[in-house]
Amino acid sequence: MGETLLPAIGVEILIPACAVVAIAFSLVQWHLVSRVKLSPHGLDSAATDGGAGKNGHAEYLIEEEEGLTDHNVVLKCADIQSAIAEGATSFLFTEYKYVGIFMVAFAVLTFLFLGSVEGFSTSSQTCTYDPTKLCKPALATAIFSTISFLLGAFTSVASGFLGMKIATYANARTTLEARKGVGKAFITAFRSGAVMGFLLAANGLLVLYIAINLFKLYYGDDWEGLFESITGYGLGGSSMALFGRVGGGIYTKAADVGADLVGKVERNIPEDDPRNPAVIADNVGDNVGDIAGMGSDLFGSYAESSCAALVVASISSFGINHDFTAMLYPLIVSSVGILVCLITTLFATDFFEIKDVKEIEPALKRQLIISTMLMTVGVALVSWIALPPSFTIFNFGSQKVVKNWQLSLCVAVGLWAGLIIGFVTEYYTSNAYSPVQDVADSCRTGAATNVIFGLALGYKSVIIPIFAIAVCIYVSFSFAAMYGIAMAALGMLSTIATGLAIDAYGPISDNAGGIAEMAGMNHRIRERTDALDAAGNTTAAIGKGFAIGSAALVSLALFGAFVSRAGISTVDVLSPKVIIGLLVGAMLPYWFSAMTMKSVGSAALKMVEEVRRQFNSIPGLMEGTAKPDYATCVKISTDASIKEMIPPGALVMLTPLIVGILFGVETLSGVLAGSLVSGVQIAISASNTGGAWDNAKKYIEAGASEHARTLGPKGSDPHKAAVIGDTIGDPLKDTSGPSLNILIKLMAVESLVFAPFFATHGGLLFKI
Amino acid sequence: MGETLLPAIGVEILIPACAVVAIAFSLVQWHLVSRVKLSPHGLDSAATDGGAGKNGHAEYLIEEEEGLTDHNVVLKCADIQSAIAEGATSFLFTEYKYVGIFMVAFAVLTFLFLGSVEGFSTSSQTCTYDPTKLCKPALATAIFSTISFLLGAFTSVASGFLGMKIATYANARTTLEARKGVGKAFITAFRSGAVMGFLLAANGLLVLYIAINLFKLYYGDDWEGLFESITGYGLGGSSMALFGRVGGGIYTKAADVGADLVGKVERNIPEDDPRNPAVIADNVGDNVGDIAGMGSDLFGSYAESSCAALVVASISSFGINHDFTAMLYPLIVSSVGILVCLITTLFATDFFEIKDVKEIEPALKRQLIISTMLMTVGVALVSWIALPPSFTIFNFGSQKVVKNWQLSLCVAVGLWAGLIIGFVTEYYTSNAYSPVQDVADSCRTGAATNVIFGLALGYKSVIIPIFAIAVCIYVSFSFAAMYGIAMAALGMLSTIATGLAIDAYGPISDNAGGIAEMAGMNHRIRERTDALDAAGNTTAAIGKGFAIGSAALVSLALFGAFVSRAGISTVDVLSPKVIIGLLVGAMLPYWFSAMTMKSVGSAALKMVEEVRRQFNSIPGLMEGTAKPDYATCVKISTDASIKEMIPPGALVMLTPLIVGILFGVETLSGVLAGSLVSGVQIAISASNTGGAWDNAKKYIEAGASEHARTLGPKGSDPHKAAVIGDTIGDPLKDTSGPSLNILIKLMAVESLVFAPFFATHGGLLFKI
């Protein structure tokens, strides 16, 4: 089997060091963003700083500077920013309050269920996988699972909240920088995204690392028990993410759809016009949904794939031989990933300069390519020093011999599958290519053909990502069974810091555009922020592609771990218990989507009524002489999302419990597999359809080609048809679609955590 | 084990007798329809006949008779009818010509592949399931499979073609009868539907029965080989149905969408206005898509479930003991089903009378309930006389003991699951209930919310049908393994004659309305046909629900038979070969839908251009003084559908071959299971979403309630939004949705037919 080159003490230094470096790096980025002053008297110095700061951006100012001396605009921006930040903070606190109650209740349930496995006995028991040894009691697993569940939930909250804070800190600053040119605005938005990306990656890693070391003080050599209880971390992170994604998704899209339906369609006023009462709610929504929700989501994926890998490793030769370095291989990969992303970020902020709007999208794409290539080298290196040349991996009852280069390939195949998914997503959602242009063209004959073509595009965009995931699964499973799949997922997520940076960049630019419009700034500023935003739409779709691809791998790995833990060796489709599980599981994403889409629809209808009421009852609103009542719209979105996130959340959280308790682990396996294979498809197609509609609309609005100009301008019939498509796509791409990857992951990790309970007490109905 | 009460000679009399009775019954119905004369001089006698005919309908004429003496109208109707009939016949001949070439090629392929299993050896071989016996050579199976394949294809063609003939014979007659009242029109349309239903059910049964008896002359006691080659019948039927559904679906929706987009949306002329150049193509489409396509589809389901049941029975105690009565139990159930449907039909045509438009939908629903209740008794009776009290069923390698009452329950659970699916579908697609009314209400805020609510409705409508199918699978599998599931499917299809009658009634009424409009008849006539058509929309959705539910069961049964035949005993989700199959299989319905939706969209765009061209270039067209060029529009639909049906058809036909040959039977099992669990959901949601949009539009147009009137009238903004939804729903409900059930069935039956080949020569890639 052999030794690892890297000693255990090296691991104990490497992981926290990488995390600390990442945190320091993100604080530096934050500091750089903070140098853009949001008060009039600081303005001149900011301009000077920007012009001749240490990063040498003096040559940036190739575009005309706009309104740099208008102090009034700065004040307005600061005002709007604080309104958005306030709304977002207040919503998140309300959300966390309600979800907090749920989390505590679920923590109690977790403790009771897991504690009851051995009747709350405090005496040691024989281990599950190695019956010759004694392991810590089930009660300990119950306690530590509960603790790690709460830790995961808390880290998820922190990730989302910090992301929202930096985003609402950066949006107005991006707007102000846009006066100096598109390059400066890009840097500000991207740096802010990087703050979120690195903070999240570092926190996720650090908390997990500390938890493992603390739990080890109690568990000692019982790594089976130790890593079984660590899986609570993934469950906590994902549960929080579910509510964050669903609640935030309903919030943002209710406001967005409501604002657009009255403002753009009925009143013919521009997007983000300050006269629209729902405009603040819309901008708040970007921060709580697309930033906080997405941050929690990706943190959840990261936590879950780490936990899945660890729990499988603990019953493989790493765990049996107590090889700490190899055991923490998943965390080492993530640590190296952070360093790789750090270097990659410099390519966007320091090594290259954006001088023209056309360079934005390539610059963001370059981030993906650079990080993937560097990481490929990193993975090879890490696998060489942190893994023994040969080892065994638990494979449903037997041990499979694996070489270190094979495991390295598993990580790499995940990494590259992520890149392929990213590029395919870009092809189907960017308006630089024919699919979106065809959708835009179909707007000639109205909204109906636009929707038909858009749906067809989304369906078609599923094909290559599914093949990529399938190849990834086949290769990594063949080499290293379920551990290989977990590591492929971690490989896809190893560049999460960069992924999040370019993902968060989108909503920040979106907000920046909103602030420019509301502050009544020059249309050239708005054009610059629009260009940033259009690239952001594509990167957001790419981010969703990553999230879904990794979710598919993660949940498969968790599924494998669950099956092992539940003590079943085959999940036979030919058994009626499994096939009905498959069928019902494949239905769950539809049920879930029905709930979330209807919620957005109903909340949007309420919003529309309120906005119409204000336009009709507040004199002078359309003329711009009276201010709308933003607060009521914020309240409508808040109330709707808090109320409406409960049923879909309950569906996801309760299904594994009900199925496991009533029908047992076999049917539950079917449900997990069914929801996985069906959910992935709907999630990908919904995200891409929505992204394509959004960019088809932007294509017509921008009018950058001969073809686009024949469809435009804004207000033409094809443009109106495009707006309808965009509105339909909103809940698809930002509410139901991205929530589905949490659905498949969460059900899997929850099943894994409760596997000991189901194996002991489950399947009541079939026992009668 | 025991004997059956019914001797073999009884079976030999019962089955053909029932088929002949059904054919006679449908000829009588046809004769009754033909008494409505389509020539002016026959008019008076027809009116007299109708008024005091032998059925005693004199009291029917509670509504005012309209224009009975206007000979001109009759001539116009006859003209339009012959144009529609001509278009439909010409399209079907073109379609059959192209598909015929494909069928012959595929027949050759079938022969070569199956013949090569034993290297075209003519010597007998040991049987697959009972190695102590000698069976006929693989070459014989190849020959007879090819023959039954062609027989199935031919019967499918005949079913579709005859249906189209009666439908295009009845449509104008329904219009003319509508002048005398809604009751007379209903009877005419329903009788014509019954002609199709009974002809199809009887043909399907009779051809299968004769084929078995003829094949038996060669096979003798080798029932394993006999029924293995009979499965080609299902494959032939379903292959033909695939092209019929897809080709017909593209034809009808290209014409429908194209006609609506220009006529209703741009030119503000009513639906089916004779000035619209696409109007004939639209009406032809109803007959080739909704009639011929659907007929082939349901015939395919019927043939496949019979074959699945027979092939499993042949290796169970029925086949081993050569118990001919029990062996033909599936055909006996279908025979009794025909008798039950015959009685049920009389309730609609003779025992009750329709006096008001409100009675139409309940009358059709009553058909479902009566047939289900009568059939429940029939099943119990048949199971008692045609089955031994106890027998064994092959269950993946072992034999499972089953009692006759248990098998009877399997059939009954399928029958009732069908009824539940029917009622749920009705609830979600009829505008008498809140779901459709909510969708209509969401049109207040425009097309976007309409689409969001409609999609959510479709997703939600999946829940109960999936649970019904799951319960059905669990019960029937527990009682009688895969044979139970095949019999549950046949149970659901046992009332196929009634199902088809009420299903075909819809497009006939739709055509009748179109003819009324084109002939310039009084608006009251159009109101009557509209009422018939609205009920037809709901029953069409119910019919699709049945088709999908039975397809799910059928393909599961075929899947089980395939797995047995391919010699694998478990399909383990935890094997990478299976899980990648599952994932890719679940993706296929999306790929397929992307193709068909895009085809409809592109063909509709071409149609729009042609219609616009005619409106712009033919002087006097809008004023009604010049006639449009209908033939060009018919040609556009024909060309588009013939060309566009190839790629989706190839996808479905080639996937099992490619996967089986390259990846082997395990991956193919995964693909079949994946496409089954994912396809069912999309098919149900697509059909119901489309049906709901259609009826939401009709709800606003009819303005039958206070609420509906606040949304209307025709031409209001909410109505325009509803029209957009209706147009989007067209390809969903009539092209991609219903084709998906053929996709899942066909891949399963094809895998079963080629199972011996895959088991011998398959999985090349993994052998390297």
Description:
Two copies of one chain form a homodimer. Helices cover 80% and strands 2% of the residues of chain A. Chain A has 23 helices and four strands. In chain A, the strands form two sheets. Chain A has a two-stranded antiparallel ribbon with strand order 1-2. In chain A, strand 3 and strand 4 form a beta hairpin. The radius of gyration of chain A is 25 Å and the shape is globular. In chain A, 68% of the residues are buried. About 3% of the residues of chain A have low confidence. Chains A and B meet through helix 6, helix 14, helix 15, helix 17 and helix 18 of A and helix 6, helix 14, helix 15, helix 17 and helix 18 of B. Chains A, B: One of its GO terms (molecular function) is inorganic diphosphate phosphatase activity. Chains A, B: It holds the Pfam family H_PPase. Chains A, B: InterPro entries: PPase-energised_H-pump. Chains A, B: Its EC number is 7.1.3.1.
Tags for this model:
homodimer, 768 residues, mainly alpha, two-stranded antiparallel ribbon, 23 helices
SSE map:
The structure is a homodimer of 768-residue chains.
Chain A: H1 8-34, H2 43-52, H3 71-115, E1 125-126, E2 134-135, H4 138-178, H5 182-219, H6 223-266, H7 279-314, H8 317-320, H9 324-327, H10 329-351, H11 360-386, E3 390-395, E4 398-403, H12 404-429, H13 434-442, H14 447-460, H15 463-493, H16 496-518, H17 523-566, H18 576-617, H19 630-644, H20 646-702, H21 706-711, H22 717-761, H23 764-767
Antiparallel strand pairs in A: 1-2, 3-4
Helix pairs in contact in A: 1-5, 1-10, 3-4, 3-7, 4-5, 4-6, 4-7, 4-16, 5-6, 5-7, 5-10, 5-16, 6-7, 6-18, 6-19, 6-20, 6-22, 7-15, 7-16, 7-17, 7-19, 7-22, 10-11, 11-12, 11-17, 12-15, 12-17, 13-14, 13-20, 14-20, 14-22, 15-17, 16-17, 17-20, 17-22, 18-19, 18-20, 18-22, 20-22
